[in-house]
Structure prediction request, 58 residues.
Amino acid sequence: MAFFKDKTDMFKHRAERFGRQAADYLKKGKTEKANWAKEQEKENRDKAEKYKGQKGWK
Prediction:
């Protein structure tokens, strides 16, 4: 993928997006969706850690 240099970068970006989304859902009072977004954020942070140090997309 051209936008991200590697999987770590992609998963960090996704985790940040889900984190912002969770905060937005909490402001709107949608706790179920906020909890889902928090779970997605954690999963993506874990995946970013898994691929840390790996070069490229393989």
About this structure: The radius of gyration is 13 Å. The chain has a mean pLDDT of 92.
